[in-house]
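SEVERITY: medium
COMPONENT: batch folding queue
REPORTER: lab tech (J.R.)

DESCRIPTION
The queue accepted two submissions in a row. Attaching both inputs and their returned structure tokens so the on-call engineer can compare them side by side.

ATTACHMENT 1
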Amino acid sequence: MINLVTVCTDSYPMIYAEKLHKQFRRLSNLKVEHHCITDRPDELPKFVKPIYPFKKSMGWWNKLNLFSPEMPSGNILYMDIDIVILNNFDDEISSLLGREESICCVSDSVNWMGVKFSSSLMFFKSGMHTKIFDNFTKNEKNIINNKGGDQVWISTQLKTIFYIDDLFPNLKKNFKFQLAKRDGKKFTVPMNIDENIKLIDFTGRPKPHQLEKLPYVKKNWHLV
């Protein structure tokens, strides 16, 4: 079983989780169960199963709930909800089944704080990383003050990592750092992108709702 899991807590608009799950269901042919870790279960579409945070924390640290021993059994496919799905990526997901590495992920677009690991998209077997959850729950007050946020800390807890984009370079691109042209703090928004790109990651600003006129955002995100 593959479980597609998102996290939407605090004041983050639930429409983001709804759009990602609906777009995935529209494009994918895989047998997938949809879940969302959230403190607002009543706002989810009916086909998405709510999971109340096992450990309620601050912002992106709620992502650590993915490693709880109470998560649904099977494989976990986690995606940040500010990712826009452009194309079917079933082949990429299927290729990860049965890999020996403890976790599969994509490379961070800027090697944040010298760390290649990115927590924006992860694939792993449920129950494999309960020590990460245990360490976090026991030391939360110290951990949440670490520079680099959740992904830098998570990377220190992992033994073996497979970087999916080493095999599939067009799986996911970061909008601001890989697709837009940057000139200092300013950047030029691309009107057209490579049609082979499967996912666009809108970390930081701008977010998809601020780019609704872009053809690839309008076509693939404004479906709800």
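ATTACHMENT 2
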Amino acid sequence: MTEVRVIIPEELDRALDSLIKAGFAGNKAELARTAIAHFLSTVPTQLAKGYDTETTFSPDGRVLQLEYAVESMNRGGTIVGVCCEEGVALAKELSKEDALMVLPNPFVQAFPIGKNIGIVYCGILQDGFFLVEEARKMAESLEEDALNVEALVKKLVLFVQPYSQRRDVRPFAAALIVGGLDAENRPRLFMLKAGLATEYKACHVGRGCDETKEILKAGYQPKLKLEDAAALAAKAAVREAKKPENVLLAVIDARTKRFREISQEEKQKIWKKT
């Protein structure tokens, strides 16, 4: 058995002697083993490694904290974005876990940012809502003429990225799909995930990725009408109980240059096209 020697203060040594005299243990070694066993019983069975608890590179070059964050995004409710010449459609799968939930939920929806930008998110909902509120602050800081989807996404990337570097915080475990009009009033669609923004014609994040991807690949066409893009987004977002009430749907119309949430009556009509 390996022998361990340590130097302890005189006060602590006298306290150990007192415990031995009181009958808590036969000697100091036995007392130390008892104390260590008690300590180990209070910590998780799987002791974390240094690169597990901090956003640093593991020995094989991976940043595990980022990978954990991405896993949370992929396990969230499905979100979908579809971009076409007439605008952008955003969809989000609604949870069916609680039949008593009040809808619309102010914390789970398609969020307008300014007049012509919209966001849906998945993953850890608290993280997503926090990022939406930051996006709103960024939009307010920009002049109305300067507010466009590309400028907003760049600001969001610069805000999120430091959270993958600092030791005192963790990466955001929420993916955002951001759709809107750019400085030239062209419809654009971006996905912000793990501090990286990527532009898409159609994109998705969340559970059931393979099925959702196949639906988007089969149904997407560059010349889609905005209503057809919304129908495609709704079809791709809802995987199980395929009903219009199980999806949030919003569009950014390039003609009106406005974000608009789709009403339940409109969803009934759009749903017939899915």
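NOTES FROM REPORTER
The longest helix spans residues 125-141.
No errors were logged for either attachment.
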